[in-house]
Amino acid sequence: MGVIFCFLSGLLMSFEPITDNDYFWHVVMGHWIDSNKAIPTNELFSWYGNYSWTSHEWLTEFIMYKLGPIGCIAIMLIIFLILYFIMFKMLKLKFKKLLDFKLLFLLLMTVFFKVTGPRPYIISLLTFAYLIYVLFSYIDNEKPIFKKLIWTIPFLQIIWVNLHGGSSSLPYIFLIGVLISDLIIRILPFKFEKLDKKILDKKQRKDLLIILILTLIATCINPFTYKMLIYPFTNMLDNNMIGLILEWQSPSFHGLLGMYIFIMIAFPLFNLILCKDKIKFHELVFQLLLLFMCLKSQRFVGMYGIYSTWTVGKYFFITEDMYEIIKKPFKKFEKIISIFFSGILIVGLIFIGYIQFKQFKIIDNHGYYSDEAILKLIELKPKKMYNDFGAGGYLLYKLDEYDSLDDIKIFSYGLGDVFSNNILIDSTKLQKLNGNPQIILDKYDFDVLINVKSSPLHYYLEKDENYEKIYEDDMCFIFKKNTN
What is the mean pLDDT of the segment spanning 56-63? Predict the structure, then answer.
């Protein structure tokens, strides 16, 4: 019964309109790939510069375009259902009782249904969960099936590197990490009693070394060949992108989402501290590695949570005996408590379902630009347009919808790795009015500027005699440069 509630709550929370700005430009890229029967190697839609670009998500973009918005939402739900099933298996849940502490941890993971829209990143969540489950089950000799499944990792890597190459370094990072951890344990002249646990036997070492070599070769089976071996690391070393793009920044612990992130980070560590006599060296190493990654960038909180599902499932501080002791004072009221909690869950699911279905529509522009504003831009046909970086994907999507991308190029959109050292810095300064806006306006010589109302830029432009406001609605402004 508990798993049904878990799945249904996750599905209902994911029943959201598409609002993620990245979805929109990914679909436009997929349209371009389909129309041109080619994979881009340069940025295509900005009028400023012609920067080289590694289209590491090209296959997902093509599929997203072919599926359309309804298909993308459907596939996203399927992906998360499979992801939930893998996490369910990693937690080793049997659900003999409704109130289960591991179930509560799994329910916490449903927040990712809420905050992750249809985009290539969710592919990496699924492939990462599969990697963790198969690799660590093989190391622990859990079932004979994993001796066969471990050989699927190189094949998985071929798919992974073409669907979301930006995270495709994880298979060989984990394989190398396991082999190095095993080597350290074996060659250290001194022993750590609590961490001196056997990791690999001779056959496992041989198998994983072969799989590592095959995985490295598989990583090169993509349009950019060997470059994808190092590409994932360039993002994590890009300080501009990490500092200026919200989803790449360190997580904030403010508000409800911040409290959730704190729990997701702190609870697995608390659990491992209580189970410190059981944990193996390599498992601790990966827990700390992913902790570092998610504290550096909130993009990795999901992967940290998925890996923690394995460690929480394997090393859970509350044993069956402890659970019975906790439950003992409430033994007389066990049925009443179960009925009460069941009622709360049922009412909660009905309420969430009602709200979600009532408000649902396929695509929501999420306060970017109105259709009227887009049509005004098409009428103006700007040559050096300014647009907000965070809304550029939606702007591309609408221009493509109106078949106007051949006539109009925009300024910036979600290619943070391409624009991080140039457009991203200047666009962020202009949006927030940091420094002297006139320097940036003179540098790019914009003929038309469109910006969302949440940006304070319009306050500056309204006072600038060089620009005239020619359009305004409750979402955005359009300014045109005076030619007099």
Answer: 95
Q: Are residues 355 and 468 in the same domain?
A: no
- With a CB cutoff of 8 Å and minimum separation 6, the contacts of 363 are 17, 18, 69
Residue 79 shares a structural domain with residue 30: yes
Is this model's pTM higher than 0.85 or not? yes
pLDDT at 194 over 70: no
Give per-residue pLDDT as tens, 308-325: 999 988 888 877 677 667
The boundaries of the domain holding residue 385 are: 371-481
Domains held by the chain: number = 2
Judged on CB neighbours under 10 Å (0-12, 13-18, 19+), 261 is buried
